[in-house]
From TrEMBL:
Residues 172-191 are annotated as: Disordered. The gene is cmk. This is Multifunctional fusion protein. Residues 181-191 have a biased composition (Polar residues). It comes from Alloscardovia theropitheci. It catalyses: dCMP + ATP = dCDP + ADP; CMP + ATP = CDP + ADP. Belongs to the cytidylate kinase family. Type 1 subfamily. It comes from the Bacteria. Residues 290-453, 465-638 form the EngA-type G domain. One of its GO terms (biological process) is ribosome biogenesis. It is found in: Cytoplasm.
Amino acid sequence: MITVAIDGPSGVGKSSTSRALAQHFGYAYLDTGAMYRACAWWCMDHGEALDMTDTDSQTEHRLTELVAQFFTDDHFDISLDPSHPGVFCDGKDLSEVIRSDEVAQHVSAVSSIIPIRNLLIAAQRAYIAGEENPQGFSNGAGIVVEGRDITSVVAPDAEVRVLLTAREDVRQQRRNKQNSEKTVTSSDTLSATSAISGDDVAARDAKDSQVTSFLEAGDGVTTVDNSDMSFEQTLQVLIDMVDNAIDEQLFGTYVDNLNEYELEEGDEAYLTGDELEEHDNDDAIDNTVGVLAVVGRPNVGKSTLVNRILGRRAAIVEDTPGVTRDRVTYEAEWSGTRFQLVDTGGWEADVEGIDSAIASQAQIAVQLADAVLLVVDGIVGLTASDERIVSMLRAAGKPVVVAVNKLDTQMLEYQAAEFWNLGLGEPYAISAMHGRGVGDLLDVALKKLAQAEKTSGLLTPTHLRRVALVGRPNVGKSSLLNQLSGENRAVVSDIAGTTRDPVDEVVNVGGEDWLFIDTAGIKRRLHKQSGADYYSSLRTQAAIERSELALVLFDVSQPISDQDLKVMSQAVDAGRAVVLVFNKWDLLDDFGRQRIERLWATEFNRVTWAQRINLSALTGWHTNRLKLAMDTALENWEKRISTGRLNSFLGQLQAAHPHPLRGGKQPRILFATQASSRPPRFVIFTTGFLDHSYRRFIEHSLRDEFGFEGTPIQISINVREKKKRK
Ligand SMILES: Nc1ncnc2c1ncn2[C@@H]1O[C@H](COP(=O)(O)OP(=O)(O)OP(=O)(O)O)[C@@H](O)[C@H]1O
Ligand SMILES: Nc1ccn([C@H]2C[C@H](O)[C@@H](COP(=O)(O)O)O2)c(=O)n1
């Protein structure tokens, strides 16, 4: 049950917005002002003039008794239905008469009497409590209560507490407009008048604030100033607040499901309700000098060195899921200089050498770094693997500092000299274990890092969305780039190729500037074909990782190859927003189009969620469709589903389609949360392993319900055991 408490000055729109809010959620609606107005009417109907400026205790007593009789003798009634609100006396509808000029002008005389307030406050609390009951108007869902003292006195524990306010001139205008639209006809004993010109909101506030304080928000009360908001905008702000409150309440309920289960280290982070840290480097970009990758053969002491550099302040800023070898980025600091330190797994070139290796995480780390710290083993000495690594580093063209590790004493330092042979300048003798020489090493490395050309992308302007235009060689990347940028700057060649000079370009797509990553790789070509595929793949991976969105290009006039699909998988596996671009569509005849549709249903079935744009990069046909697809993909890539919504959806899904029995047991979903976005990542706690088909069913259902068009979503299943009885 949710209680929404709304206070505010006269004419701000409390009643109208509260009613609409209650209607939206199917909640009850309590207009406490109407209760005070009805009491004023009742007193006047019983001959009380209510025109005193100061009430004496005798009058207060008399009026309080009269009001008490109104309530305790069951004369008073109020409708909590927001679609048909109303106050009644002995069954007679007072709705119009209580809005009369006479009542409006005298109600403060009643509402300022404290014992009368106490009576009404008790009645209002009873109405609120009644809504907890499944038999209440809202069937136990909630109530919106509005007035002057609701957030502070009547319902200080309400889940949503709002002070709705607006500038006085705006409120007066609204009230005047409201009055001019109002035509009141009544034959009641009190004359109901239309167009109440004397309804002065400032005067009313002044009177009302003698006994209530509604001009300033109390602790925990959210102020919503709607001076410059339309009715619909105000309503939306309140709807969002209520949605959040519902989520919070549901969150607690769902987390309780885990009470009986053994939790593991790290689970706590998912159960606090706080949003987990995004994989977002934007803050770091402002303060760091660049990215330093630590590479070397296994067992040379890379991790020891990384730990030595990080000390206790280690903070993972990005890990790369789904990779066979580790590549972890940390935020680091040395002598007041901040930088990112990338730890890579052991890098052992196989017998065929590095060129034949697949793009290992260490190699990608080098591509994505601004400078490299090569760690070698001073005790073992120079090895063939070290030399292979060095030739690859040379090809990458990044500044390198050589750390000769395991030289624990001064006596051993001379052993570093052998590594001059690598041709990378002075080798630095260190002992990562004991910290010996590490300070000097870092001084040199950070100096190089600061001076290095920034190729990591860390320092690229962040206000532009980053796009990687990828696809196998010759699918039309340069043509599309030219078409989009409107200039023929790139050499469009039939011969495929890449280079190693990363160049980013700002390209205007659909009236908006985007940062296209590493367009040099798209435009130039490599003389030597051998190894080109390998570097192309490496480069594509690096470009994808620096991007937020991958435009994956296919040449549909040619057969779709494994390499095409591999590039697409690289983007999907890296968790980037994706738009698939089917280029050269204009070259297809009917038969060709049918062929592509068949492929779409088969080869592309892992990305049925992706948007596909059929276009011609050459003529520009349909390129205007890219912007919307890119915007949609990125919007969904950043989407967050609240834990409450997620769990109630999965709860219903599970009830309608339970997991099939396995070995007499049925795995159940206990709790789920969206751990991060960019791309959306969900963590689902279950009582048992979920079959692959059930996972796919969950993914499809999440997509149907929440719409994740254009973005991969990741789902992790955390199986938890029931606690053992002691
Ligand atoms: N955001 C808004 N923009 C413009 N008009 C609005 C807005 N919200 C409400 N109104 C209009 O302002 C008028 C006053 O609204 P309403 O009667 O709900 O105010 P109230 O705060 O309940 O006042 P009181 O406390 O005096 O009863 C109504 O005509 C309503 O339709
Ligand atoms: N909780 C409340 C609600 C209303 N009042 C007073 C303020 C007004 O003078 C009067 C009528 O209210 P309205 O219908 O204009 O919102 O009742 C109050 O003191 N406490």
